[in-house]
Design a protein that fits this description.
By secondary structure, the chain is α+β, with helices and mostly antiparallel strands. It has one domain. 22% of the residues lie in helices and 30% in strands. The protein contains two helices and three strands; from the N terminus they run H-E-E-H-E. Strands 2-1-3 form a three-stranded antiparallel sheet. The longest helix has 13 residues. The radius of gyration is 20 Å and the shape is extended.
């Protein structure tokens, strides 16, 4: 019997990684008064977010658009599935 291996994302979640989404607002290089939005999403370790920090350091050294602000949203850690009983039913049709 062949054993299946868990996905890389699932293994990362077991190690404490969470799916992090960052909205990066930056000044457009040609029009500094205008802000542009960039969405970054990757598995990362909260609360330090080392992958996001590396990306923002790369941004500062390779791109012209100066970062205005960064907002981070993070999925909850892997845990038991929430389940609740609904005490009624209905028929469709």
């Amino acid at each position: 019997m062949r054993r299946r291996r868990a996905s890389a994302e699932f293994e990362m979640q077991l190690r404490g990684y969470r799916l992090a989404t960052a909205e990066i607002l930056y000044h457009m290089p040609d029009h500094p008064a205008l802000l542009q939005s960039f969405i970054w999403q990757q598995y990362d370790l909260a609360p330090d977010y080392p992958n996001l920090r590396r990306f923002l350091d790369w941004w500062d050294s390779h791109l012209e658009g100066k970062i205005h602000s960064v907002r981070i949203a993070c999925a909850a850690r892997l845990g038991p599935v929430a389940w609740r009983h609904v005490p009624f039913s209905f028929d469709l049709g």
